[in-house]
Structure formats: structure tokens, C-alpha cells
Amino acid sequence: MFKFITEFLQSSGYLGVFALMAIENIFPPIPSELIMPFAGFVVARGDLNLIGVLIAGTAGSIAGALPWYYGARKYGKERLKQFADRHARWMTVSAEDIDKSIAAFDRHGRSVVLFGRLIPAIRTLISVPAGLACMSLGQFLFFSTLGSLAWTGVLTAAGFLLESQYERVADYVDPVSKAILGLLLAWYLYRVFTHRPAKG
């Protein structure tokens, strides 16, 4: 996995970083905790530029968050919850997740968008209450960009600084990344087989 992602980023460049981060925010097959550190390794080897990687990663993160924002804004709370329940086995959120996100948004105000982008568990979910609350697109983009830039910056820096131990790190990260992906797949299959539609 380590070799595959680093080689993919080398060959696809900034577009690959953008695409992986966008997909990760819509449906996370590979978490950003793996994508951006790998991009940092590639930067440290001189194959990509640090600023370019940060821009691509941040832009991809925002691009992946926008569908959730617009979906919430267009459909509204009740319709979105019904949609989430109907398609929960294929999605990463449920009606209960949506309620929790709205409650957090109401308690902590719109600045939660900024800090929410720094928390793996709610990085995508935080776009939902922002849309439901009809937060302006300008505000959403501003706070989301700041939070996403900080998040991608930390992860990229970690990969960049560890490049001098590339071979040793690869020996540790590769099995860990496979284990993470295995757990994600197991969690996804669990949801598929145990999901029950919400009662109308």
C-alpha cells in the first residue's frame, strides 16, 4: 500500500493529491491520515513541490466537502435525514449522525466549521450543519479552507520530516495502512449487512 500510493502520487502529481483528498471527503476509502503524509514523502524526495501539494490537498478537501454542504442546503434537515436513512448502507452518515452534527453546530456556533475540519471523525460531517443552517458559501469556504490547510499542513509536514528514514518508515506504515484499510472495509461490510431502513 505504501509503495502503491507513493508511486501513484509520483505519476499523477498534484491532480492525484487533489483527487484522493476529494474522494476521501465524500467517501473515505483511504483516509487523509495516509494520503497527505505519503505526499510529504514524495515532496521530500523532490518529486513534488510542498506548496503545490498543500494547495492540491486543501482544494481537494474543500471539493469533497462541498457536495455535503450543497446537499444539506438544498434538501433541508428532514429530507436529508430521510435520504441518509434510505441510503445509509452506501453512505458514511446516518440520520443520527446528522442530528449530532446540527446539535454541535448550534452549541458552538459557526466557528465549529474551522475546528471541525481538524477532527477526523467529523471533518466531512461538519459540512452538513453548515448547509442546513444556510451558512453563506463565502463563510463556509473561508473557515473550511483555513481548517483544511492546517490539517493537510500537519500531515504533509509529518511525512516530509520522516523522509530521511523512508525505508524504515515504509516497513512500519505499510502494514499499518493495510490494517486500517482492512478495518474500514470490515466496518463498511458490517454496515451493509446489518443496516435496517428507518421506519416511516
Written overview of the protein:
- This protein has 200 residues and is mainly α.
- It has one domain.
- It contains eight helices and no strands.
- It has helices at residues 2-26, 32-44, 50-86, 95-108, 112-116, 127-132, 137-161, 166-194.
- Helix 1 (2-26) crosses helix 2 (32-44) and helix 3 (50-86) packs across helix 7.
- The longest helix has 37 residues, at 50-86.
- It is found in: Cell membrane.
- It is a multi-pass membrane protein.
- Residues 30-159 form the VTT domain.
Give the tally of β-strands: 0
Helix content: over 70%
Beta-strand level of the residues, as a percent range? under 5%
* Secondary-structure content class: mainly alpha
Distance between the termini: 43 Å
**Contiguous uncertain segments of 5+ residues:** none
User: So how many helices?
Assistant: 8
Radius of gyration over C-alpha positions, nearest whole angstrom: 18 Å
Number of domains: 1
Assembly form of the protein: single chain
- C-alpha geometry: globular
Q: Which H/E pattern describes the elements?
A: HHHHHHHH
Q: Roughly what is the average pLDDT, rounded to an integer?
A: 79
- Biggest beta-sheet profile: none
